[in-house]
Write a structure and sequence with these properties.
The chain is mainly beta and about 140 residues long. It contains one helix and ten strands, in the order βαβββββββββ. Strand 4 and strand 5 form a beta hairpin. It is globular.
């Protein structure tokens, strides 16, 4: 499973009340350009081209089902991993799955983190790719 890497801005955005992780709409964008940890917004990411069932800005919705803290550790859980399915063409190539918050308007679409799959992936028509987020989308230690 790919490791999750958080963007630097995520910590600041938490402190400044940009995110309500328990209720905001989170999404995953696909890119083949290496993320820069100092990026802050989705507009700074070069998403892959639309087509084959992938639509930038609307694909990859994350369904959050739990947001809780136990002994100072906050966990965000989802009902199922995000699955991309190529339909009527190919998706990709991509290497990175970027998690962002689609709800805030200021700043617009702030970045949270990404998964690096270490090599390029291209989905052929009808193939699927699962962004395996593990038991929790993310955990934050106090």
């Amino acid at each position: 499973m790919a490791s999750f890497v958080k963007y630097y801005c995520f910590v600041e955005h938490l402190a400044e009340k940009v995110h309500n992780l328990g209720s905001d709409q989170l999404r995953i964008a696909l890119t083949n350009t290496a993320p820069t940890l100092t990026h802050t917004l989705l507009s700074e990411i070069t998403e892959i081209s639309d087509g084959g069932g992938y639509t930038s800005g609307t694909s990859g919705a994350v369904t959050v089902i739990g947001s809780s803290q136990t002994t100072g550790v906050y966990s965000l859980t989802q009902s199922a991993d995000v699955v991309f399915t190529a339909s009527g063409g190919t998706i990709g190539p991509f290497r990175y799955a970027v998690l962002y918050n689609d709800t805030p308007t200021s700043p617009l679409n702030p970045l949270i983190g990404y998964w690096d799959y270490t090599s390029n992936i291209t989905l052929q028509d009808t193939e699927t790719f699962t962004v395996n987020m593990g038991a929790n989308i993310l955990q934050i230690d106090a």
